[in-house]
Amino acid sequence: METKNVIRAIERLAALDSSGLRGRDFLLTWDKTEEQIRGVLAAAEILKDLRDAGLSPRIFDSGLAVSIFRDKSTRTRFSFLSAANLLGLAVQDLDETKSQIAHGETVRETANMLSFLTEVIGIRDDMFLGQGHTYMLQVAEAVREGHREGVLPALPTVINLQCDLDHPTQSLADLLHLARHFGGLDRLAGKKLAMSWAYSPSYGKPLSVPQGIIALMTRFGMNVVLAHPLGYNLLPEVERQAAAFAAQSGGSFSKSSSMEEAFEGADVVYPKSWAPYQVMERRTLLLQKGDSQGLDSLEKECLERNRRFSDWECSESLMARTRDALYMHCLPADISTVSCERGEVAASVFERFRLATYREAGYKPYLIAAMIALSKLENPAGTLRKLLRTAVRRAP
Amino acid sequence: METKNVIRAIERLAALDSSGLRGRDFLLTWDKTEEQIRGVLAAAEILKDLRDAGLSPRIFDSGLAVSIFRDKSTRTRFSFLSAANLLGLAVQDLDETKSQIAHGETVRETANMLSFLTEVIGIRDDMFLGQGHTYMLQVAEAVREGHREGVLPALPTVINLQCDLDHPTQSLADLLHLARHFGGLDRLAGKKLAMSWAYSPSYGKPLSVPQGIIALMTRFGMNVVLAHPLGYNLLPEVERQAAAFAAQSGGSFSKSSSMEEAFEGADVVYPKSWAPYQVMERRTLLLQKGDSQGLDSLEKECLERNRRFSDWECSESLMARTRDALYMHCLPADISTVSCERGEVAASVFERFRLATYREAGYKPYLIAAMIALSKLENPAGTLRKLLRTAVRRAP
Amino acid sequence: METKNVIRAIERLAALDSSGLRGRDFLLTWDKTEEQIRGVLAAAEILKDLRDAGLSPRIFDSGLAVSIFRDKSTRTRFSFLSAANLLGLAVQDLDETKSQIAHGETVRETANMLSFLTEVIGIRDDMFLGQGHTYMLQVAEAVREGHREGVLPALPTVINLQCDLDHPTQSLADLLHLARHFGGLDRLAGKKLAMSWAYSPSYGKPLSVPQGIIALMTRFGMNVVLAHPLGYNLLPEVERQAAAFAAQSGGSFSKSSSMEEAFEGADVVYPKSWAPYQVMERRTLLLQKGDSQGLDSLEKECLERNRRFSDWECSESLMARTRDALYMHCLPADISTVSCERGEVAASVFERFRLATYREAGYKPYLIAAMIALSKLENPAGTLRKLLRTAVRRAP
Fold this sequence. Notes:
Three copies of one chain form a homotrimer. Chain A has 396 residues and is of the alpha/beta class. The first copy, chain A, folds into two domains: 3-166 and 364-390, Rossmann fold, CATH 3.40.50.1370; 170-361, 3-Layer(aba) Sandwich (Rossmann fold), CATH 3.40.50.1370. The first copy, chain A, is 47% helix and 12% strand. Chain A has a five-stranded parallel beta sheet. The longest helix of chain A is centred in the first third of the chain and has 19 residues, at 34-52. Chain A starts with a helix and ends in a 6-residue tail after the last helix. Chains A and B meet through helix 4 of A and helix 3 and helix 13 of B.
């Protein structure tokens, strides 16, 4: 192992004030300071370096990490699991169909009942606009009360594994990927990133990824262009947040209704489908009313509208307009001729960046582990230094 | 940590003869001696104190705890999981729909196939009268044979996570809650506890909680009153057991058909709905025959009968008749105007005791861990003393 | 513990060249050398002896073992789990219904997404002829690419938990059972083993067990007779492989269409139902086309054909023709009058060998653990020697 690199990374972490993360949940990146974000990234890199060097960064002897997935998931599920395991926690998924939640339990009660020996609660709830984030706040408030009132011996950290607003474990993995690609966080300033809508033969994909990207990358001096066809807006407050961050960081945030324009001279492109927030609002209301006919006609209407923009595909000719841009995606991508007839990205473009997107995804377990560690450790740099010194091997 | 308290608790445990728990299953509290019950409570308190002090009471380096849930469960599922994790065991749920049990396996065979490296089997099977306890005995006998005949290197302990007769992990958590509330097990003598039926808009709730309560609290000198409308009887043999225990302990066991009378001057009230055992017997027969029409009409008949007793609600005016009683519930409760229009308890009463019921539930993981530990350890007090001395931190 | 036995077993392991297992998957026994097979068996025995002696053979401090079960399973599921737990790995099952595999992910992508901190991937995929083994090869190739290209820090070992060709964890457990029964692997030469088809009231049972048996036991000098009614053939290439192994080992491989003949003078009998490979091929095509009418008529045709051979039952009179043979089965067996009216084996025969079949199954966790260990350890004998010397207790 390049121990020197790890020691340097620990020094970097020690110099950052990430103390505000201790005892706090991780729900939205825009609620965190830039130093805290840098702290999470530094800790993630250290944990990855330790693991790559075959050393165990276990900080728990026992304890639970509870996951609540209200939507299907492979990579986030395994990332959360891997992060918890790396630190010494056992994961238990709350399968709501096997619980007594239907028997009149309140969120407040369930949250405490799950948490008697729980250190972390990871939640994915991204289907209904306005609900995922609210649910996470309710869980967080419930366990905070439980801890204050002597019900819970430890305060579980609530981690957002994707809500209707943000997808912080994804956007931070993306940020670390960018930092490694360009040689450091400080090299991102001035780079152009095109966060672009792209065509998909499905509809209703959540907004949290593009929202997370524009509200995070603008903090590091990047020139972020958000491109989408007319009417495919993100939540206005998140766009305002991105603009404010760009103004502070010396970057920029602009909008375009042309994929070509957004890709022109870009250093990074992130082409990905989503549904307009107005559609997500209508969908949420219809789902709440159980109006399946309304849902069907909404889907029909949206797919028809989508089809008008089927040329929003990350093609080779579009890539040729960029400055040899890095292609990014949160996966799984809709790959033309591979996973669908026509989708978000041309097969040759995706194949060229396929392994890069895998590596991008591969940072997620370490970011989640870093979020957990920084919410628990009084002196993270000190603890990591000690782990490096004692050097328990993780595997033969 | 108040190490002195833990040391004292360990001395208390050392003075109790709980050796009869070693190598034995935990199915019914009334099969255990009073000293054994006191031993389980003492061990649970010590484990809780260690955990609250941030020390790890891990006694296993590896091994499995298998859970079999034949009914939905949140708190018992997570309690079992937490207990196993605290001691160093990994939990695997047997999902009967994913197993080959349907392919002609016998209980005897499955029990062994699950148990090659298993230390504990926790079972919830409370739906059919006369079946849950029988099933647990079959599993216990099967693994005992397997161990005797060299199939299994260790004898798994079978733990009743709720059957048709008893719910020992619940009733012992309730007993510990009472002991902590009144300042010790020895302060319970002479206290009046009202175990009362209460109205619920559902039907078919198991009898194991009220049965577990009357057969346990009568052993500690309490004056237990069982109240229910005419016809909502518990199993006669359990009532007889409660009466016998009361006679031995200097407490009392009486019955009443008035909630008011039961609450009068009570120190503790436990209002909770259940179905009469005669109904459970009829339901079991109908379920076995797959008679869905019969089940529908039984449900209709029972809900109609229930409605005649919708005034059996733990209201503020009833609470006013008590001696400032402690309200208890195994959760989830049917809370009037919250989880249903009218239910077991008034919202204001429940809200006042809400956090207390969470704490009550919070003892369950430690009681399960204590049951496991005492079934395995040759010298529990010695092992716990050693854990305290070596003092491995459980978490940062 | 008989430490001396373990030390001798470790010396035996040290003398075998099993280095070719390191960094390799375990998919088919016939891809492995005889020394490697002997190495796996020796390691399994050592791990079992350590565990039986109460010592912990944990070699991992953290890490995941992922299981993918595309068919129902009890004993293999718990065996994989037990093996992983014994070595210090946490198991996560990939529930394909809860993942985004339906959302256009490729096998290549999913395999990497599961594996960021994964040491082992166990797969059962035995339903479709020609597909299970192919799927395992795809997963193995995907993670090999991911590891080579810096996506995965460690190369996960893919372990075949039953495919359409082989069932190596079963056949090796069977081989160890035979070795223990007859007093050593070297005592198997010259023994007659009857691998016989037997009647079952169901159809479509996989071929992997009989194929695994004939292709493994022929390597140890056994005289293997494969018996089945006309038309119930195994895959021709596996039969050829068995014949080639027999020729090398000095054993024999022959076929018979009479159960009586096969049992005559047998030392071991393995009566078990399966579907002809031609039927499995037709079934695979019908399943792929979603032709449920075709499937129904195929089932009808096959069950009718099966019925013509309902006298292929391992009865007492057949057992009387053997040389006091050992009865073997992979479980669950179709036991006449117990799990079905008429099945593979008479109740009295099965009951006499019931505990022996449980012990046979009980070797599986140790064989899986041995496969994992030998795929990871640079110097298995050295590591095991060290484990024995440091002697961490696994349980109180």
